[in-house]
Amino acid sequence: MTYNGFDILPSQASGSIKPWKVDIPQKELDNLRTLLELSEVAPPTYENSSLPARAREPGLGLRREWLVKAKEYWQCEFDWRRHEKHINSFPHFSVPIQDDDDDIGRSTTFDIHFVAFFSRRKDAIPILLLHGWPGSFLEFLPLLNMLRTEYYTADTLPYHLIVPSLPGYAFSSPPPLNQNFRPDDAARIFDNLACRVLGFESYMVQGGDLGGRIGRIMAAKHPACKALHLNTHPMPVPDLLKTTRSVQMTESERAGLERNNFFLHNGTGYAIEHATRPSTIGFVMSSNPLALLCWIGEKFLDWTDDEPSLETILESVTLYWVTRCASTSVWAYRQFYGPNADSHGSKKWHIPGQKPLGYSWFPKEINPIPRAWIETTGNLVFYKQHDKGGHFAAMERPRELWDDVEEFTSGVKDVFDG
C-alpha cells in the first residue's frame, strides 16, 4: 500500500518499530453478527420511549426506536471490511515499549499501536494526538485525511503527527493484571514513545477527554513536552476564583457553564460506574455487542453537536468489540471521580513556568468551562471559541481544530528551538 511518503520513519527512530495493519479475523465478524441476531432489545417502557422536548436534548437515556434501527443496520448492512480498508489507508505501526516505573521498581513491556504521518522536513515539530473514552485513534482519521488531501505532502508537512492507541484501547496492550494503572503511567509511556522510541528531543501534545488529561501530565511532569493544546478541560471552580465576586465571562461561556453544571448533575452516571465498579461494567459491556452499543452509542449521541452518522458510531463500537477493549479501557476513571478526585485544576498538574498552553472551546463540549478558570492552571497563550462542535472535536470539526493547533503551534515555535 502506498502512503505517499508519510510512512517513512525519521532516521533516528528505533528499529523496533514495525509497520502494521488492521486485519480482523472473519470469525470475529461472523460471531459479532450471530450475537446481534440472538440479542433482544428490551420491551418498550416509559423511559425508553419518551422523547425530550427537543430532539437533541438528553432524555432518560437511549431511545428504543433508535436502538432497534441501529441493531438491524449493524446486523444486516454494516460493512466492517469497507471501514477497515479506509483505516488501512493510513500508516499504522506497532512497537514494544519497556516502561520502567522507578517509584515502585516495576518494569513492564507494552505493545503500543499508533497511526502516524511523518514529515521529511528536518524542522518538523512532533505532535502527539491523544484520544479519550469512548474514542480511539479513529477520532483523528478525518483530520489526517483532510491534511493529506487538502493541506500537505510528506515533503511539506511541518509536523510529525503521531496518534497512539492508549493502553487498554484498540490494538495497544492492556494495563497489567497485578497492579493499578494510572494516567501518570500512560504519560510516562508516551513520553518514552516520543523520545526513546521515535528519537525526538522535544514534542507537543494535543488531546481531549482522557487524552487531554494525559497530555496535561506530560506537560507538567516531562521536560521534553514543550507545549500542550486541549479541547476539553473538566475542572471545578478554582479556589482562587471562589472568593471573587465577579469573573468576566462571555454569554457563550455562561451558557457553557450551565451545560457543564447540567452534565455534572445529569450526565455522570456512567463515569461513577466506571470509577466505582469498573469490573462489573466491564463484564456488562463485554458480554454482548448490543449492550456495548447502548453504553457507547448514547455518548456519541449526547456529546456531539450535529448527530454523527450511524456508520461513524458503529465503526467505533465495532472496533471496541473486536479488540475486546471495553473492559480494559475504563482504568482511568477512579482517579477522576469521587472523593479527592484529580482534574485539570489539580495543582500537581499545573503546567510549570512559561510552558505554553492552548485551548479550543466548543459549545457542545460536556464541560465547556470559562477561560478565566483555565488561566489558573498554566500559561494560557491561545484561546479560541467556536460556534459549532462538541466533545469529539477532531471527528466533528477537524478543520477548526486543526487550524487552532496550527495557529497555536506557529505562535510557540521558539520553545522547540534547540
From TrEMBL:
Annotated catalytic residues: D209 (nucleophile), Y333 (proton donor), H391 (proton acceptor)
Ranges for domain Epoxide hydrolase N-terminal: 17-140
SUPFAM superfamilies: alpha/beta-Hydrolases (SSF53474)
Top-level taxon in the UniProt lineage: Eukaryota
Keyword Hydrolase found: yes
GO biological process, one term: epoxide metabolic process
Keywords: Hydrolase
Protein name in the entry: Epoxide hydrolase N-terminal domain-containing protein
Family listed: Belongs to the peptidase S33 family.
